[in-house]
Design brief:
By secondary structure, the chain is α/β, with parallel strands linked by helices. It has 9 helices and 10 strands. The chain is 47% helix and 17% strand. A hairpin with a 2-residue loop joins strand 1 and strand 2 (10-15).
Length: 256
């Protein structure tokens, strides 16, 4: 279900559950487990997530799981989705979604949990859960409004409006649109840029950016920003970065 390939400082996670790369309970547990393992591997600076094949990034949950109305199963799956995507959202490395096709329901929520999203021109995105008597339970109702604003979040969730890649770009749902077949290469190029930066500085910056999403009072967030700046001076990378600049060479990061 989750194929993980690590090449130097970049990991590529491929959602692989044909035909639509749907999520199962086991697959969600594996995703969360993989994210935690990558958090512990300080040699990994960036993660790219994509779907196997040419049609689907992921169609989300397999609706057959909910056909029987089993409330215990529903609770378990909701917890699995929430736990996996929260782990993804809070991952130490920078996480980039390469949306290579349909990203529907939990599939779009997976992309929403990433830091950045690149979509191929033919991609379609939606949160259609309300059309089948459900609702987005993988952090979608909370993350989507942060990215696109309350109005577009309501259009997508409350009216089941599907957006194509061009519309997704215009409303801020994705950061880049590329030709068919180009999402993975574009995401890897962006990940490569991440690897040229101080990993500790990037990690701290990501955490600070998320403070705004969490509603942290501005004075507290600004105080934390200054503290994290000072914390960087406890590690070797701060000195390496500044010295490399003056010596006109590429820095050799140690992630410490």
């Amino acid at each position: 279900m989750i194929d993980c390939q690590i090449d130097g400082p970049i990991a590529v996670l491929t959602l692989d559950n044909p035909p639509a790369n749907t999520f199962t309970a086991e697959g969600l547990a594996k995703l969360e487990e993989t994210v935690h393992a990558l958090n512990s591997d300080l040699s990994v600076y960036a993660v790219v997530i994509t779907g196997r094949g040419e049609k689907f990034f992921s169609a989300g949950a397999d609706l057959k799981s909910f056909a029987g109305g089993d409330k215990v199963l529903a609770r378990s799956m909701a917890q699995r989705f929430g736990s996996a995507f929260e782990a993804l959202q809070n991952a130490r490395p920078v996480v980039i979604a390469a949306i290579n096709g349909y990203a529907m329901g939990g599939g779009l929520e997976c992309a929403l949990a990433c830091d950045l999203r690149i979509a191929e021109e033919q991609a379609q995105m939606a949160l259609p859960e309300t059309s089948v008597g459900l609702l987005p339970a993988g952090c979608g109702t909370q993350t989507l409004p942060w990215l696109v604003g309350e109005g577009w979040a309501k259009r997508m969730i409350l009216t089941n409006e599907r957006v194509d890649a061009a519309k997704a770009l215009s409303i801020g749902l994705v950061e880049e649109v590329v030709p068919r077949g180009g999402a993975l290469a574009a995401a890897l190029a962006l990940a490569q840029r991440v690897t040229t930066l101080s990993p500790r500085a990037v990690t701290f910056s990501k955490q600070l950016i998320h403070q705004a999403r969490l509603g942290t009072p501005r004075h507290a967030a600004l105080a934390l920003e200054r503290e994290r700046f000072i914390d960087l001076f406890d590690g070797a990378d701060q000195r390496e970065g500044v010295n490399a600049f003056f010596e006109k060479r590429k820095p050799r990061w140690q992630n410490r």
